[in-house]
Amino acid sequence: xxxxxxxxxxxxxxxxxxxxxxxxxxxxxxxxxxxxxxxxxxxxxxxxxxxxxxxxxxxxxxxxxxxxxxxxxxxxxxxxxxxxxxxxxxxxxxxxxxxxxxxxxxxxxxxxxxxxxxxxxxxxxxxxxxxxxxxxxxxxxxxxxxxxxxxxxxxxxxxxxxxxxxxxxxxxxxxxxxxxxxxxxxxxxxxxxxxxxxxxxxxxxxxxxxxxxxxxxxxxxxxxxxxxxxxxxxxxxxxxxxxxxxxxxxxxxxxxxxxxxxxxxxxxxxxxxxxxxxxxxxxxxxxxxxxxxxxxxxxxxxxxxxxxxxxxxxxxxxxxxxxxxxxxxxxxxxxxxxxxxxxxxxxxxxxxxxxxxxxxxxxxxxxxxxxxxxx
Amino acid sequence: xxxxxxxxxxxxxxxxxxxxxxxxxxxxxxxxxxxxxxxxxxxxxxxxxxxxxxxxxxxxxxxxxxxxxxxxxxxxxxxxxxxxxxxxxxxxxxxxxxxxxxxxxxxxxxxxxxxxxxxxxxxxxxxxxxxxxxxxxxxxxxxxxxxxxxxxxxxxxxxxxxxxxxxxxxxxxxxxxxxxxxxxxxxxxxxxxxxxxxxxxxxxxxxxxxxxxxxxxxxxxxxxxxxxxxxxxxxxxxxxxxxxxxxxxxxxxxxxxxxxxxxxxxxxxxxxxxxxxxxxxxxxxxxxxxxxxxxxxxxxxxxxxxxxxxxxxxxxxxxxxxxxxxxxxxxxxxxxxxxxxxxxxxxxxxxxxxxxxxxxxxxxxxxxxxxxxxxxxxxxxxxxxxxxxxxxxxxxxxxxxxxxxxxxxxxxxxxxxxxxxxxxxxxxxxxxxxxxxxxxxxxxxxxxxxxxxxxxxxxxxxxxxxxxxxxxxxxxxxxxxxxxxxxxxxxxxxxxxxxxxxxxxxxxxxxxxxxxxxxxxxxxxxxxxxxxxxxxxxxxxxxxxxxxxxxxxxxxxxxxxxxxxxxxxxxxxxxxxxxxxxxxxxxxxxxxxxxxxxxxxxxxxxxxxxxxxxxxxxxxxxxxxxxxxxxxxx
Lengths: 375, 634
Fold this sequence. Notes:
The complex is a heterodimer of chains A (375) and B (634).
Chain A (H helix, E strand, L loop, with lengths): L5 H7 L2 H26 L2 H28 L4 H23 L10 E3 L2 E3 L1 H19 L7 H20 L3 H18 L3 H21 L3 H11 L10 H13 L10 H4 L11 H34 L3 H25 L17 H20 L7
Antiparallel strand pairs in A: 1-2
Helix pairs in contact in A: 1-14, 2-3, 2-12, 3-14, 4-5, 4-6, 5-6, 5-7, 5-13, 6-7, 7-13, 10-12, 12-13, 12-14, 13-14
Chain B lengths: L4 H8 L9 H33 L1 H12 E6 L6 E2 L7 E11 L9 H12 L3 H13 L7 E7 L1 H9 L7 E11 L6 H4 L2 E3 L2 H5 L13 E3 L2 H5 L1 H5 L3 E7 L5 E8 L6 E4 L3 H14 L6 E7 L5 E7 L12 H9 L8 H4 L9 H11 L8 E3 L2 E5 L7 E5 L5 E3 L1 H6 L3 H9 L1 E3 L2 E4 L4 H11 L20 H7 L6 H8 L9 H13 L2 E3 L4 E5 L5 E3 L5 E4 L4 H16 L16 E9 L9 E10 L6 E7 L4 H18 L2
Parallel strand pairs in B: 2-10
Antiparallel strand pairs in B: 1-8, 3-4, 3-5, 6-7, 8-9, 10-20, 11-12, 11-25, 13-16, 14-15, 17-18, 19-22, 20-21, 23-24, 24-25
């Protein structure tokens, strides 16, 4: 197990998973190109800046993925405590030192690029929880690991929530939920917690949500109330997507996108560019790619006999699924505004590299612990 | 790792005996996980379908109305010329700072307002309040003019700062620049921004005006608004989110306004003003009008003091109030908007009426001893004295006019009684009032300028209603000489004088001759309007004309100061008393002159009015100088 035959590596490698993720990145680059035409004025500049950067990050991402896929993922288990400490440390650092953009503190500068610790924290939490659950496999039905793992999750969740980044906090919780269920927690514990959560939710809404979040929720309910102010983005995204109709207005021909009615159109609202320019059909293609990717991820999880690998794969699938759902949900006004990038599609280096790290882990899970029927 | 499947299975089994097969549990979990994935994407798909498939058309319309904006193209306002085609107004380009409220980001307001305050010198709070109001209105796209009359440098700076100041625009407007300035201000009037009241209550909204439009407020600018304005065009422009215009999709050019050619003669107007100014002395206000007797065209019409209509465009409320309160009320066109007692120039009406009524003829003689006495109708022990301005002796009709004898006209209107016996039969106040109305007094002349006053033609019913006292013989005597309750505008007297001169046609006076298209071709040619024909024979009018000629030409006449070498001037002075008794039967006086020339073939009528002046000493010489210039200029 400690060494891998070259033939085995290539046989076990999930090419469909790689192709799907590359297709998504390519799709994203096309949308970023179209979305940045308006801001950069000419196609050459749009190509030069955001598109080139995204391609560079994609290349870095794929390289990292290939490297990780060669490494036995179980090594990651040993680094879990260090990773967790680093993640918590960077979240604290952001809260203390980073400056606010769009009303929240999420970014730190590393070597000239902006890094979002909350993105990295999601991956770290997946590794940490997988390690924790694997080590306590025999005792998973008792309350102690259930409660402790929740505490492990709540600490970064709280820090992310303070930024404030409600979306990422929800995703961290979702990751824990999916992993603790797959790890074998007692259903009575899970149901008990859900019940408690539902009871506490109204109080949490009143007590914990600050003005920033309250405004976002008010805007979500009625963006027309302040169509030129806080409701602007929500409303314009909705108009962009709706006006794309079935076939879209054509790439680079979306009036909302090109005339900049849509803001942050290469990051949080990149889906609105797709909705406007490529329409319902374009969105269905994207959904198909995501569903395919997630199914391949679940396949890696379910076919793995190693609980550590399985749990990490489950965490990764949950992470991507909820990122996608929340991002698109915000775009199409199913959910209140929260800044979550669309995996593989949104412009942004740290998100893209994190995702390829996740892809590398999935590949490694398949390669280093192949399903029994292949042995 | 090469264990038997069976044993292996046992090893993985959970300690709880009743627990189901563990791998089956896991398979179930992953099955539900796959369902969850499909379920979440299903929700997204349904919402997308709702938006893009079912409501797509409505969203498409909203996207269209986002990017397309209808921008009105303002027509060039028509120009105004004097009767000799001298331009009186030009449309000068003029910069204004405007804010499109919809494009003015609320979250950047805090940063932008101080910049605007500094650049435009308009308090930030004032701008913010206006923008807020506009944002909440149903038309946040029409630029809000924050400051007009920007200098070129500020306009240039604003343009350069476009990217820092989204929604702020430099708007190029056409501003009216009146080249003759104060000289024509009362005639041309001014334009100004459409007010809320005009827009909503007075229906400008329905005539295609926008709140930022300029509209004629006074003078010719107001009366000829529909001709001067032209037809606005519109263009459909694609704009980006910051309000920058990307491209024009469609456009419909504006039709420029028609030009207006005045009947006024700038040269004569200027001389009229000059002579009036010089002759009015310390008076606070004065009027002179020269009118063509056969057409009603006004050749000059000067009301002093002047104001500058160029200064009205950006006047502050304080400055406006100061102008309104300043002596002589410069904003008022006293020629048409103010009424005064006509004094002796009213005797033309009394005289011609009496001739027509057969009360008198050219040979009727009356003797003035300098006054007549009248006993109180209810208490004969009280008697009143009505003075003549001199004891003229015995006069025929011509002499009565030329000498402007009050007693002569007391007789004509009120008759004369000695010891209760009527020695001279007068025509009575009712008849006189009727003739006044025939001449056009008590009603607007119909001049093509706004703000005309009616004046008063008194009669017993009027006095009963307005003063609450019965009419007395004394009222009739005062009425006969243009004193008491009767009031007129100077323009009404110019119309009266023209009617006397032209054989009885009461003309509607006009300041505008022709409407011309932008290249100067006449579209609507001038047509004179006869309001009424006097029920007075030309023979009777001729008697009055002779009397007026003698007033100027006869050495004893009252209007000799109006004589002009080489031109036979006919005319009559008037000195009207007004206001309270200043002691000893003395009153403040207005000076009048009303006349025409040449006497035998009248061409122009002239009326001069000098507030707190004297007819013979002040008004007549001014009229003489104006007529001299009119007939002798080359």
